[in-house]
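Exercise (ungraded).
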Amino acid sequence: MIELRRYWHPLATAVELARGKPLARTLLGVPLVLFRDASGEAAALQDRCPHRHAPLSCGRVRKGEVECPYHGWRFAADGHCTTVPGMELPVSNKPLVHAFACQIAHGLVWGCLEPDAATPPPVMPAVTDNVDYFFMTDTVNCTLQQAAENFLDGFHTHFVHAGWIRRDGQRQSVRASVHHLASGVEARYSDEGLQSGLISSLLEGDRQTSMGRFRLPGMAEIEYRGRRGLNLLISAWLTPESDQRLRIHARVATRCSILPGWLKQLFLRQLFGVILRQDKRILEQTSENIGRFQEVRLEASMLDSRLDLLAPSIRQLLAGEALTVEDGKAIECWL
Ligand code: FES
Ligand SMILES: [Fe+2]
């Protein structure tokens, strides 16, 4: 496995991290408290007061420091204790709470447990200019690999999202090719007409190509392009809270148009809310089912078909292995 602790992962949206209130998050099993320091920068500390181990995330933020809810000890962004109510502060040069690397980028608050010289910057969306966007967030009980595969797999949409994205009785012939990216992999679909489901009829006038891509450590992205450029870009960062639980931050972006962003958001939020719930349901049903068969190593015995275009590559990337799929390999299929 790649060392997920050495990568940046989104923990919250920048909007969620309000000035006066700490946020509880978990990254790879480590409980964190997030807050904004006096200058508005994001900070992440271990979510445990060293005095009696109360959760700092249940306290409040005062003058850019987090205050423990139990006896009011206060901690700065670097983990130093600045106040012990009722006594003069003993001089201590050492931080009393572990501070983690934290930054705000692309509208998200990111944390990294063990950054080093090889840690790449936070993974940004493919398109940032001339788009209206908003974030949708949720948690789901499954592995990073399961969620990434699901998000980028077109062949479940006829069943899990029947009528919303595609319909099984209305498949069309499509050409798909797989391409290597730096720390990622991408599938490109061409010759696909408008999809048979509701979302395409409402959102897409002129689809020409679509792409699904995965980038380490956990970003899955779907991009639809028409003659006039971008129609829709959904970038989903999958943050492992533990081996079996993810926090998802999905950025839904559309090309700026005469429709105001807030109006598009009102509509798209409802629509993609349905899709997200449908995916969450099948992912959790699948994880629970795997849990019923603990005597077999099911991850090692998954039966890939030719249509699982990206899944083997996602597994190899997460395992830190080289991609074995031929770069540019194409297949014809019915999608
Ligand atoms: S437990 Fe935090 S101040 Fe006592
Ligand atoms: Fe789906």
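Further reading is listed at the end of the chapter. For now, observe: DSSP finds five helices and 18 strands in the chain. The longest helix spans residues 261-291.
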